[in-house]
Design a protein that fits this description.
Layout lengths: L4 H8 L6 H11 L4 E3 H14 L3 H11 L1 E3 L2 H14 L3 H10 L4 E2 L11 E2 L1 H4 L6 E5 L5 E5 L1 H6 L19 H8 L1
Parallel strand pairs: 1-2, 3-4
Antiparallel strand pairs: 5-6
Length: about 180
């Protein structure tokens, strides 16, 4: 049986509406339960948004049942979030890059991996520029500096670029149900 994130949250959290039911299911079906690396990624995001110990939440969840997929990447990313202040997705990108150069305007990678800085390699003024690819498509490149100059929505946490306090209420509500 596939265990979704809300099931694991109900097991992990001290108080949860489904805590008793989740414990019963876990007791009765422990050997049949499994989940995927994507459940761990969602737990990483919820823990990050709630200010919990991301490393502990992900590691403990992975120990509860079989996890199919790349568990080590998510656990390593949780460690970078907890110990070095990375956002969850920046940490996942760092771990997946495996020491290769990261093409990004994000300075978070500076001391951890070689980086090709888009801010330093952009042509002309920062902003939106059209570029023609070899197959005739026009590619638009929006540099990071444009996003910095315009305020983001208070609910824009989908890529982990907002402070923990600004995470969308939907994520926080799903963690407390």
């Amino acid at each position: 049986m596939y265990a979704e994130t809300d099931f694991l949250l109900a097991l992990i959290k001290d108080e949860d509406w489904f805590g008793d039911a989740a414990e019963t299911v876990y007791r009765d079906h422990r050997d049949d339960l499994w989940t995927s690396q994507f459940t761990l990624v969602e737990l990483l995001m919820v823990a990050y948004c709630e200010g919990l110990d991301t490393d502990r939440v992900v590691t403990n969840a992975a120990a509860l049942l079989e996890v199919r997929g790349d568990v080590d990447t998510v656990v390593a990313a949780a460690t970078y979030v907890e110990n070095h202040g990375f956002t969850p997705f920046d940490a996942l990108h760092l771990v997946e890059s495996d020491g290769d150069t990261i093409v990004s305007s994000d300075e978070a990678y500076e001391s951890f991996a070689p980086r090709l800085d888009l801010k330093q390699t952009g042509e002309g003024e920062a902003g939106t520029e059209g570029r023609m690819s070899s197959d005739g498509y026009l590619w638009r490149t929006v540099l990071h500096t444009e996003r910095e100059s315009s305020p983001a929505s208070e609910t824009d946490c989908s890529y982990g670029h907002r402070p923990r306090a600004s995470c969308p209420s939907a994520i926080l509500e799903s963690a407390t149900m």
